[in-house]
Amino acid sequence: MISIIHPSRSRANKSLETLTHWKESAAFKNKLEIIISVDDDDPQLKYYQENASILNAVLVVGKNNCAVKAINRGAEHSKGRILIVVSDDTDCPKYWDSMILAETVMHSDFIVKFQDGIQDWIITMPVMDRVYYNRFGYIYYPEYKHMFCDTELTAVAELTGRLIKSDFLFRHNHYSVGGIEKDSVSEKADATWAEGERVFVERSLMNFGIENPVGSITNRIYKDWIDRKQKEYRK
User: Fold this and answer.
1) Residues 126-168: pLDDT tens digits?
2) In this structure, are residues 172 and 89 in contact, taking their beta carbons and an 8 Å threshold?
3) Would the CA dihedral through 182, 186, 192, 197 be positive or negative?
4) Please, which residues bridge with residue 82 across strands?
5) pLDDT at 6
6) Is beta strand 82-85 parallel, antiparallel or unpaired with respect to 127-129?
7) Confidence bin at 183 (pLDDT 50/70/90)
8) From residue 227, how far is each of 26, 32, 153, 204, 205 by CA, in Å?
9) Strand partners, 36
10) Which end of the chain lies in a sparser environment, N or C, as judged by fewer CB atoms within 10 Å?
11) Fold classification of 2-234 (topology level)
């Protein structure tokens, strides 16, 4: 079974549209678990409750106040062998689940980097198996709120040597490339940049807690940026 972890806030209509598309595009609809993770103070909570009923999804409600908490809370309720984080702005091709299974059938303890149409390195749509998830007990390191959580996720995937790279495209319709409309949720996420950068640099100095890394960061641009930021931090 594949567990879709879907964090959302104040976008009930877009959320329903996104998850309906993902469900209808799957080859094995009866092998999906949909988990919608929302805040307990979301003004659109009743609509998310209706969406969960329509989609036969699990609705997880909690005091999150940030995307990372919502995602990690949703993942705690998942039962699937494979976990995938689907945001409101993430698109999928037809039979996407078959693509994931084809890429991972011979693997265990993995995380996959699919192409998102924007950049080649950062994992913007986490796909991992239960074994990899259980290594850490979370999708994103809990100290992040939004920004840089996926940068650490990608770095750790390479340091552990468990990364699978795929050419399949799952388009990220981010507002910065003309995707979904920028709203207050986007602005709140963007506002976490400085805090996220601080957490990332501090954690990079300790190899993100990876004691015996078997891989290294392969993207030269990010590697140079990390080296520069570490030097600035040490001053």
Assistant:
1) 999 999 999 999 999 999 988 899 999 999 999 999 999 999 9
2) yes
3) negative
4) 2, 129
5) 98
6) antiparallel
7) low
8) 42, 41, 18, 9, 10
9) 6, 59
10) C
11) Spore Coat Polysaccharide Biosynthesis Protein SpsA; Chain A (3.90.550)
Per-residue model confidence as pLDDT tens digits over 3-15: 999 999 999 999 9
- Specify the amino acid at residue 95: Y
Structure tokens at 126: 């986490």
- In order, the DSSP letters of 149-195 are HHHHHHHHHHHTT-EEEEEEE--B--GGGT-SPP-HHHHHHHTTHHH
Determine the pLDDT at residue 146. Answer: 86
Q: How confident is the model at residue 117 (pLDDT cuts 50, 70, 90)?
A: confident
Domain residue spans of the chain = 2-234
